[in-house]
Amino acid sequence: MISIHFSRLKLVTHGAELDVLISLAIASDFYEGPACCPTIVGSSLSSQVPCLSAKKLGHPVLRSDSLGKGAFVPNDISIGGSGRARFILLTGPNMGGKSTLLRQVCLAVILAQIGADVPAESFELSPVDRIFVRMGAKDHIMAGQSTFLTELSETALMLSSATCNSLVALDELGRGTSTSDGQAIAESVLEHFVHKVQCRGMFSTHYHRLAVDYQKDSKVSLYHMSCQVGNGVGVEEVTFLYRLRPGACPKSYGVNVARLAGLPDSILHNAAAKSREFEAVYGRHRKGSEGKLAIQSCDKMAVLIRSLINATTSLSGHKSAGIDISSVTELQDKARIFLQ
Questions:
Q1: Mean pLDDT over all residues of the chain?
Q2: In what order do the strands lie in the sheet with 87-91?
Q3: Are strands 131-134 and 167-171 parallel, antiparallel or unpaired?
Q4: How far is 275 from 251, CA to CA, in rounded Å?
């Protein structure tokens, strides 16, 4: 009986393997657009930076016949690798395709690591040990957990478990609370992943201040999902292009989504006016903050220049070889003029 059992178990195992291989072949044929065999890049050396690079990456599930709006728009994406940032900070309009991009990248990584073809012209990957995704809004009523608590609990798990070889996808973290608290949490979490964990990741957000704070950080690349903006009657008309482009998007165009949802024109016009009012207030506040920072920078510069004058004064009293005294004196005069 035991021998018969093992024979049947072996038969079932081989049948399952064959089923998987056939399924992968069917899936590869199902892709709309190019498909490729992924290139797996080892990162055994500590000096090698894990990479993820795709050219014309499509979606393994979404096709024109399922979308009903034309073919799925592929995108090029690079995360990590030599000389490239490991994290992407993604902005863009509501309904612009940010969440879809995060999902398709994660799905492509799974396909690549199980040995399947990937819907792309080319796909290069350093293997990941785990994929962490924080996406969507949900609560746990039976556990007494709100949407925001659920979001932070899942984020806490990611923070404690992710390694430098993990892939992280965070979609609009912090939206379940006030703007100030949400932005502060989002920025702190992003900073931890970028500078401490140093893993590959994607972070989509509507907190545009994050893009300002990270625009000079070499470890973060700013990208946005592009769109075309036209002038409607009182409300901006947005056409989604679903193209991943470098740089940050200045607005989220939420009022446009409200128009697509069918809100009455009177509410849309009022919302658009309120939006412009809020943007003007934020712009004035931002200029004031930048002015304060500029004053602080000038104060610090003044302290440094005074120290330079003192140092060069003591230096000019020496007849050391190789020191051009006239140049030192000229430098002192220019520094004193700057302080006036």
A1: 81
A2: 131-134, 167-171, 200-204, 87-91, 220-231, 236-246
A3: parallel
A4: 10
**Amino acid letter, residue 63:** R
CA-wise closest residue to 52 among 104, 90, 116, 96? 104
Q: Is residue 120 within 8 Å of 58, Cβ to Cβ?
A: yes
pTM: 0.76
pLDDT band at 268 (very low <50, low <70, confident <90, very high): confident
Q: Binning pLDDT at 50, 70 and 90, where does residue 300 land?
A: low
pLDDT at res. 193: 94
Give residues with Cβ within 8 angstroms of 146, minimum separation 6: 139, 176
Of 200, 241, 247, give the one whose Cα is nearest residue 221: 247
The vertex-149 CA angle with 145 and 152, nearest 5°, equals 145
Report d(CA 92, CA 225) in Å as an integer.
5
CA distance 76 to 122: 10
Residues 6+ apart with CB under 8 A from 207: 174, 179, 182, 183, 186, 187
Over residues 248-253, the mean pLDDT reads: 81
Strands of 39-40's sheet, edge to edge?
A: 39-40, 122-125, 51-57, 75-80
Give the C-alpha separation, 127 to 109, whole Å. 8
Amino acid at 166: S
CA pair distance 59, 40, nearest whole angstrom: 20
Q: Where are the alpha helices (DSSP H) in the chain?
A: 2-30, 64-67, 98-113, 147-161, 179-191, 208-213, 254-260, 265-316, 325-339
- Other CB atoms within 10 Å distance of the CB of residue 253: 23
How many C-beta atoms lie closer than 10 Å to residue 201's C-beta?
Answer: 26
Q: Has residue 129 got a pLDDT over 60? A: yes
Residue pair 196/158 in contact by the 8 Å Cβ criterion: no
If we measure between CA atoms, which residue out of 78, 66, 83 comes closest to residue 32?
66
